[in-house]
Structures are given as structure tokens and as C-alpha cells.
Amino acid sequence: MNNKELMLTAYKVRRHVLDAVHSAGSGHPGGSLSICEILSLLYFEEMKNLDTQNPGNPERDRFVLSKGHCSPALYGVLAEKGFFPKSNIMKFRQIDGILQGHPSLKDVPGVDMSTGSLGQGISTACGMALSAKLDNKDYRVYCVMGDGETEEGQVWEATMFAAHYKLDNLCAILDYNGLQIDGNIADVMSPIPLDEKFRAFNWNVIYVDAHDFDSLRDGFAKARACKGKPSILIAKSIKGKGVSFMENQAGWHGSAPNDEQYAQAISEIDAVIKELGGNI
Amino acid sequence: MSEKKATREAYGEALAEFGGQYDIIVLDADLSKSTKTDTFKKKYPERFINCGIAEGNMMAVAAGIASTGKIVFASTFAMFAAGRAFEQIRNSIAYPGLNVKIGATHAGISIGEDGASHQSVEDISLMRTIPNMVVISPADAFESRGAVLAAIKHNGPVYLRFGRLAVPYINDSSYKFELGKGVTLREGSDITIIATGLMVKQALDAGEVLAGEGINARVINIHTIKPIDKEIIIKVARETGAIVTAEEHSIYGGLGSAVAEVISENCPVKMKRVGINDKFGKSGKPLPLLEEYGLTAENIAVNARKLLNK
Ligand SMILES: Cc1ncc(C[n+]2csc(CCOP(=O)(O)OP(=O)(O)O)c2C)c(N)n1
Ligand SMILES: [Mg+2]
User: What is the pLDDT of residue A280?
Assistant: First the structure.
């Protein structure tokens, strides 16, 4: 896919995010909208051996959404990829749907790990990467974390583990949107500076723009080229990206738009989709 | 009465209400708007400490603050309190017997749409096994207020279990909360329903349904699951000869288990436990979920009939 097609995919995913949280009446739009380009590039270019007919293919690259509350973005990209019919999106968080509020390995085709309790996904990603090393397999493991999530001590236990076992097949992506639930990460419980912390833990630190495909592509290439240590892309992002009134607002972390707000948000997303030559 | 309020709401209000009279410190882990500790924060910002998304650290920090003589409330969702921070609670709070009150909100499957990862149905069991720990599961807003005050007055660790869902009042403003004392809400001689938390209302409704069929069910609210009111449990076992328990929690280790422990050693009678039957929850709206998992008046009544062979 070229950048334009990837962007079209990212905006279709944004549409799924809005459909999901609006139809459910709950969920987390902010942090979902900030990772749409990251997930689109991962699933449509970077990750290898994905097979929608055989989601459990043992040779596949793995993905862990450590900040599991952003499941709408993951479900959106999995649906675009074809792991399950898009109609499931409208059943997000509903009692008769498969799409659980937080990713569930046993319920949703294409999901590689159940997450939702912050700080644990990165450890599970370490386990997957270590297992690849033990089996001499060359699949890679990708893990998206939140910046607020790094306040969990377990993140640093995992960080130490990954460097100690030289897990260069592990690539973490930090969604650096600067916000958590109670406000700015700098005000609530500052984990800053994050880059220096990861470097001090002997990780390869790469700075990228979370909404720019060239920057992301370049970052993933650098991570792949780095041997002997794990890599992290510190992806500067905008929480709520793509919906003007949600951008950089902590209040949109975990609340669903009402009908009017939904219509407004969709019209903004659809305008971009149209501009990119996509049909709605 | 048709009025409703979530017990977490009452928790936040009680912290703000008693914060003037008592020198309490309130900790939270990036969930103050959800746990409702922000009601306290607005009134007493200097005594509110946000610990960020770091529950294990928060519990041990709470222990340290309490060791200097203060009363500390530490809040997060039940899953991340009793679950994630279990060992910090056990070793840093309960073992030294420190004065930390754990305000655990969003307990049970009635948290709803967040799904299984956030639905704590093991917390009563976990907390009940810890020596020194008092475990309280209030049924409505008035009981929650009373429980907070009792926790402040009790010297030692307390686990307070609150819900996200707005639940009907079963008490009124005259309600006096007595730590460790079961409350008889309905008299009856054929069978006893012992319930806790939001299942107390369901137990009362089941009592009504059964009465219409000529079965007189006694209804007991056990808000303090530990130390449990042995006296009232033995009494109802003797007087009614059959017990159904009801809780929004696993049938392993919670209220049903606690009641079974008491009666099996003192006065064995027939018993059934209504609760989550060794399953994870899932996403959905709270009421349909409670229905699907059998946490209803109807299912309590079904179990009561079964026990009485009716
Ligand atoms: C262990 C744990 N504690 C608390 C929560 C509740 N919670 C969900 S999202 C969130 C804030 C996350 O902030 P961040 O990691 O920055 O995510 P993003 O901004 O990307 O949405 C919190 C505290 C949780 N899911 N898990
Ligand atoms: Mg963030």
C-alpha cells in the first residue's frame, strides 16, 4: 500500500472506532484515535505472515495492545484486514457480540493476547519474543503501550527483562499523547523523561511521528535493523486525532459521543476519506 | 422507593462529608472521576494524592502513610486493588495491621461493558483470607455512608466494596450501620435468604415472590462479610432450616462460602449458593448481564423452591 492507501485505511479505522463507541454508548475514543496510523501500517505493511484464514499461524508476527482499552482501533484494523466481518463492530461491548470491551484472545479472531489491565501486555510480548528465540523462529513481536501506562512498575520489570534477554525481535511502540484519565501525564504522575529511561534500560530508542507513515516506516526499519537489544518507537501523537473536538482533550479518554457529536465526528472523518478518494 | 444511587457515589460523598471531622488522606490511581474520590479532592485537595497508574505502589505508600498515624483511604477498581495489589495489601497493610481503608469500586459484573478483564468476582474471597482484614460490601448508598464512617472508626485495615451501577435504596437516612452485624430485613420461617451488596434488593424481591406462593422467606443482609455475624447465621439456620445465599461474586470463597463455613461447623442445614458459577464475565449492559449470570430475584426464588422441594 502507498501512503495514500494507508491513510485511507487509517481513516476507515477511525470510522470504526466512532461506530464502535457510539453504538456501545461507552468505550475509549481518545487513545484509539491516536493509534490508527500505527496499527494500519503494522497490519498492512510491517507485520509478516498474517493469515486471516489461519489467525493462529505459528510463523506470524504477533501484536499485543498493552493499552487494551483502545480495542476499538484494534478491532477496526482487524476488520479491515478481514479477520472477521465488519458488522461485528456495531456489536462492540454488547452482550451478544464477540468484541469484548478489552481485547480477548479466546473471543476475537486475530487478537494475539487478552489485555485490559495496564502494564501486563508488554510482559506478555516479552514472553512471545523470548519464545521465538527459544525456537529459533524469526517472527517479530509488536506491542503498543500508553504513556500513562508506563507509570505501572511492571512496565519497567518487562523493560529490564527484554534488554537482559536481548529481545531484538521485540518492538514496542509508545503512544506518546501526553494524557491519561485524570489529566496530563506530567501533572498526574510524571514518567518523563521516557526516552532517557528506556535508553538507561538499554533499549534502542527511536523517535517517530505517530500520524506520519514515512516516519513510522523509517522507525520500524531502524528497529528491525537493530541487533542485540529491543527497540521502542516513541510515537508523538495527538489523543483524539481526526476529530477536532476530541483532539488533546483528556475528557474524551473514556466517554462515548452522543448522537450529535457522533454525526459531527463522522462528517469530519468522511471528509478526509472523500478527499483521499475513498467511498463511504 | 424508586430512587437510586451507585454505592461508589455515596463513597465519594462520605469521604467529603467526614473529611472535615477526621484527618483522612485519600489516594487514587488515575481513576478519581470513576471511583468518585474526586468529590473529596474538590473539597480537600491538599489531602488528596494521585499515585498514577501504579496500584501496587499506591497500597504500599498507603501503608507507609498510615504507619505515621494517619487514616488512609486508597482507591481504585476492585480488580486492581484486591487483584493486582493483593500481595502489597497482605504484606504491607494487613500484616503490620495498618490503618488503611481500601475503597474498591466497580466490583462485580455490573461494571458492565468493560468486560471480564475489569469484572472482579474474586475480591471478597481474596480479601477474606487475609488475617486482620475487615471486609464490607454495602447494599445501598445509606449503608455505604455508614460503612465509610465505621471504617474510619475501626483501627486497622478495611476492604470496602462498591459498585458502578446505580442501585435502589433499601434503607433511609435513619439507618445505623453496625460493623459485623447482619440485618434482618424481612421475617420468615420457611427458609432464609442471606445476601450482600446489590443482591440484597434481589433477595427482598425474591421474598415477595415467594410470599405470593405461600413460602415465608426471611431475608438477611450481611454487609460485613468479615468478621461475619455467626450468631445471626446459626440462628436462622436453626429457625428456618434452609439457606440460600446471594452475591455478585464467585460462589467460591465469597459470602456463600463464608455462610457454609459457619453452618457446617455449627448447625448444618440445606443450602444453595447464588453467585457467579466458576465463569469469567463478559461485556454487556449491567442488567442483562446480571440476568444472564442468574443474579436475579427470580433465580434466588428458583433456588429457594428447589431447596424446599416445591
Ligand atoms: C492496571 C490498570 N489500572 C487502571 C486502569 C484504568 N485505566 C484505563 S485507561 C487508563 C489511562 C491510560 O492512559 P494511557 O496509558 O496514557 O492511555 P491512552 O492515553 O493512550 O489512552 C487507566 C488508568 C487499567 N485499565 N488497568
Ligand atoms: Mg496517554
Answer: 75
Q: Span A27-34, mean pLDDT?
A: 98
Mean pLDDT of B45-63: 98
Q: Is A27 exposed, middle or buried (0-12, 13-18, 19+ CB in 10 A)?
A: buried
CA R_g for chain A: 17
Residues B259 and B296 reside in one and the same domain: yes
B273 neighbors B258 (Cβ within 8 angstroms): no
Rounded to an integer, the average pLDDT of B285-310 is 97
Cell 527497540, located at residue? A231
ipTM confidence score: 0.96
Report the alpha-carbon distance of residue A141 to residue A138 in Å, rounded: 10
> CB-CB: which of B52, B83, B292 is closest to A189?
B52
CATH number at residue B257: 3.40.50.920
Q: Does A94 touch chain B (CB under 8 A)?
A: yes
Residue A95 belongs to some domain of the structure:
yes
| Residue corresponding to grid cell 487494551 | A68
Q: What is the pLDDT of residue B7?
A: 98
Same domain? For B74 and B9 the reply is: yes
Residue B173 within any structural domain of the chain: no
> Is the predicted pLDDT of residue B170 greater than 70, yes or no?
yes
pLDDT bracket for residue B2 (50, 70, 90):
low
**Residues of A with CB below 8 A from B284's CB?**
93-95
